[in-house]
Design a protein that fits this description.
- By secondary structure, this protein is of the alpha+beta class.
- Helix content is about 25%, strand content about 30%.
- It has 8 helices and 23 strands.
- The relative contact order is 0.22.
């Protein structure tokens, strides 16, 4: 980040210029909700999404398993997931001819039920979630692949399910562009530019030395956040996924299953199961590589063995699964594992929609609404200063 030369007053538009860095699900959702809020007393905005990759949704948004999960330990994340589920149910047909969401339900299985999980279940029920409790004898009635699985208690959340990130993201961009948002790909932002007097955001500088002026910059940059604003302290962690060969147990409509305390999840995909050992290893992306899917790397043998070992221990019916391919992607966290959302407390005009960790799909629509509202509040203040 550097301070921009003072250009004096060069206002040419009454619109507040908003630049969103990153066209993953978080950035597209913020753009979508901002654009739909235009008019009706909202301040006029000029919104542009800037993406370093040649195509959208090619990094973290393309690497995840697409599970909508609301039974988590963080209360704010639960509420965002519930709100996202409601928003998914109400997506306009103009932007989504086919819904990206299938409400298959989701299972969180516990070897040692904890008070924290019980509190989370109680909170979700207060929020209107339909939750069933199962033991190893009854679980096969809702998840045939878990017959004989080893756990003490499982919660089946009927409202959870599977969401196709690509279809969801394309609808967000389609709706945003329909409301006037511009999208540019292949734009590598190198620096944030700040006013030398008050430190506020003045614009962005690209790797090609282009200056892009703006009053508001939204960082929806996930694993790349610290490259532009190191004080955000966002840490990228690698996680593996493995696609199994087809099996009759992966029937249509089977819920996803997460062994929360044992490090294993699986969901039906392409006639088989998509499985993860829930591994974590710090790995930062190559800042010089702007190709599509640059942060995706092939799965390694150690992670495949982890999946096989945990399947044998926890889900005997799937212990003989063979795997066709594996890969790893990046999830981004802060130290406290809470998402970084809303205006910066240090830099006027800088807004965050990042560090969503593993909840990007589960919470992206709610996050977009939340951050968009914070931007509207901020732009009203900017307009008042003019």
């Amino acid at each position: 980040m550097k301070f921009a030369p003072n250009r004096g007053v060069v206002e040419t538009s009454l619109k507040t210029r908003v630049r969103i860095v990153g066209s993953g699900l978080a950035g597209a959702s913020v753009a979508y909700h901002l654009a739909r809020s235009a008019g009706a007393g909202a301040p006029p905005l000029e919104i542009e999404i800037l993406e370093r990759s040649p195509q959208p949704f090619s990094e973290a948004s393309a690497q995840n398993a697409g599970m909508i999960r609301s039974l988590v330990l963080e209360p704010a994340e639960r509420e965002r997931a519930r709100q996202t589920i409601q928003l998914l149910a109400d997506l306009p047909r103009d932007d989504w001819p086919h819904s990206p969401f299938r409400q298959t339900g989701g299972i969180v299985a516990l070897g040692h039920p904890s008070p924290a999980h019980e509190e989370a279940v109680a909170h979700l029920r207060e929020l209107g979630a339909a939750i069933e409790v199962h033991d190893p004898q009854s679980i096969a009635s809702v998840a045939p692949a878990l017959r004989g699985a080893r756990f003490e208690k499982a919660f089946f959340v009927r409202d959870d399910g599977l969401c196709d990130p690509w279809t969801l993201g394309q609808g967000l961009l389609r709706g945003a562009q329909r409301h006037g948002v511009r999208v540019r790909h292949g734009v590598h932002i190198r620096e944030l530019l700040r006013d030398p007097i008050d430190g506020s955001i003045q614009g962005l500088e690209t790797a090609d030395d282009e200056r892009i002026d703006c009053e508001v910059c939204i960082l929806a940059t996930a694993a790349w956040t610290d490259l532009l604003y190191p004080d955000a302290s966002v840490r990228p962690l690698q996680r593996h996924l493995w696609q199994s060969r087809p099996t009759k147990l992966a029937c249509d409509g089977h819920p996803w299953c997460w062994f929360d305390q044992d490090g294993l999840y699986l969901r039906p995909e392409a006639g088989g199961f998509l499985c993860s050992p829930c591994d974590e290893r710090e790995r930062r992306p190559d800042p010089s590589d702007a190709s599509a899917g640059a942060s995706t790397v092939p799965g390694d043998e150690a992670s495949r063995e982890q999946v096989l070992t945990r399947l044998a221990e926890l889900v005997p019916t799937l212990s003989e699964l063979g795997f066709e391919r594996g890969w790893s992607g990046l999830r981004s966290f802060r130290e406290d594992r809470e998402a970084l959302l809303g205006p910066s407390s240090d830099v006027p005009g800088l807004v965050f929609a990042t560090a969503l960790g593993g909840s990007g799909v589960s919470t992206c629509l709610s996050v977009g609404e939340e951050v968009a509202q914070s931007v509207l509040d901020q732009t009203l203040r900017i307009r008042d200063r003019r």
